[in-house]
Amino acid sequence: MPHILLVEDDTNLSLMLTRQLQRAGYSVRHANSMAAARELVREGTWELALLDRGLPDGDGLDLCRELRASSPHGYILMFTGMSSDENRLEGFEYGADDYVSKDVRLDEVLARIRAGVRIVGLQSRLIETNKRLEELSLTDALTNIGNRRAFDNRFALLFEHARRYERPLSLVLVDVDRFKSINDQRGHSSGDEVLRSVAKRIAAGTRQTDFAARIGGEEFGILLPETPLFEAMQFCEKIRASIAAEPMDGFRVTVSLGVANVPHSLVPTQQELYTAADAALYRAKANGRNRVEMERRRECRKEYASPMQLTVR
Fold this sequence. Notes:
Elements: E1 3-7, H1 11-23, E2 27-31, H2 34-43, E3 48-51, E4 54-55, E5 58-59, H3 60-70, E6 75-80, H4 85-93, E7 98-101, H5 106-137, H6 148-165, E8 169-176, H7 179-186, H8 188-205, E9 211-214, E10 219-225, H9 229-245, E11 255-262, H10 270-286, E12 292-294
Parallel strand pairs: 1-2, 1-3, 3-6, 6-7, 11-12
Antiparallel strand pairs: 4-5, 8-10, 8-11, 9-10
Helix pairs in contact: 7-8, 8-9
């Protein structure tokens, strides 16, 4: 049910408008002054505002400007006796969507309100559609967890928070062992199923505050805010064991994991935190796979590929 805010100090006119709007299926809240209208706005939402200009405690245009600033997508209809061309232009400059004289017939006012409600509904659906599209743009289509873009965005935010407030942040890189042989021997459909299964087990092992994403072909990144290195190592071991414990698509799959952490005297940047975790992951692969390795201080400044240019193993 659309919510309408009616701001009108004429008692008879406000009663008539309220009855008509309620009959049309709208929820109406009435205020007879700017102060009363501000209180109603603080107490609840509105989709369309019907405003008079000549109010006891000021010009309704000032309220119009306030409402527009607080609700860019709300619809504001000025309904007033001040109906000169100059008044209309002034109303539009203050943020009104429509400006109607009190001299017009009531059915025209109601028609304009219906048009405003339709516009608000279209805007709401467009905003919701854009939100869903944004979510899809940050989701990996195969595994249904975050994608590389989402990972980069979250990584930047969490690293800055950790740096500014000197809070722990752990980064985990996970790589599926011998993934190429899975694709070669069992086909890409089996490879896809393995990636989906690994993603599900990673997601099942993370907290709501953690963030997991597929950041390369068979590589995943996990961000663990407020997690010291030792706890991150325990988390990694649980993920490694859960993946190795049960077959995926009929055969055993293992992963290698590298973990790094801030605050760290040798990790002053986001890039170097990634480098440290990447070095640990390479070492896990070199030391036999299906294992967890942690950062080594001397590796934290070693040059590896940028996070934007991952090597697919």
